[in-house]
Amino acid sequence: MDNTVTVTDNRTEKQYTFPVTHDTIRAMDLRKIKVNPDDFGMMSYDPAFMNTASCQSKITFIDGDKGILRYRGYDIADLAEHCTFPQVAYLVIHGELPTPEQEAEWLAAIRIHMGIFENIKKFMEGFRYDAHPMGMLVSTIAALSTFYPDAKNVRSHENQMHSIHRIIGKIPIIAAYGYRHSKGLDYIAPEQNLGYAENFMHMMWDRSPLQHLKHPVLARALDVLFILHIDHEQNCSTNAMRAVGSSEADPFLSTAAAAAALAGPLHGGANEAVLKMLDEIGSKENIPAFIKGVKEGKEKLMGFGHRVYKNYDPRARMIKKTAESVFEITGRNKKIDLAMELERIALSDDYFISRKLYPNVDFYSGIIYEAMGLEPKMFTVLFAIPRAVGWLAQWQELINDPEQKIARPRQVYIGYDQRPLPDSYTYGARTEEALVSTH
Ligand code: CMC
Question: Does the reported pTM lie above 0.90?
Answer without folding.
Answer: yes
